[in-house]
Amino acid sequence: MTRAFSRSLAAIASFIFLAAVGANAQEFKKTLTLSTASTVEIVNHFGKIDVRATTGDEEPFVRAVSNDGAAPREIPETNTKGKLRFEVQPANPRKRIDVTLAIPERASLVLTTSAGEIRISGNFATVKASTETGTIATDIPLENVSYSFWWTASRPRYLSDAPLAEVKEKSAGRFVIAGTLAVKSKKPTNDEDPAKTPDPVNLDFTTSRGIVLVNVNPNEVPSDLRERPLTNAAKAIIRSGDGLLMEAIRRASPKYFGEYAATLPPLKLEPRFSTSPDKPTGPNAELKRVIARVSDLNNRAVTDLRKEDFELLEAGDVREIVSVVPTTAPFNLVLLLDVSGSVENYVDFIRKAARAFITTASPTDKIAIIIFNEDVKQLSTLTSDKGKLSESLDTFDAGGGTSYYDSVAYVLADTLRPLRGERSAIVVLTDGDDNHSFLPFDALIGSIQESGALIYPLYVPSSLIAASRGQEINRPIDEVRNRYMGLTTKAEGEGERLAQVSGGVYYPISQLGEIQKAYDDIVMQLRTAYSITFRSAIYDPGSSRGTSPRVKLKVKRENAFVRLGTVVAVE
Question: Measured at the alpha carbon of residue 449, what is the angle toward residues 445 and 450, in degrees to the nearest 5?
Answer without folding.
Answer: 115
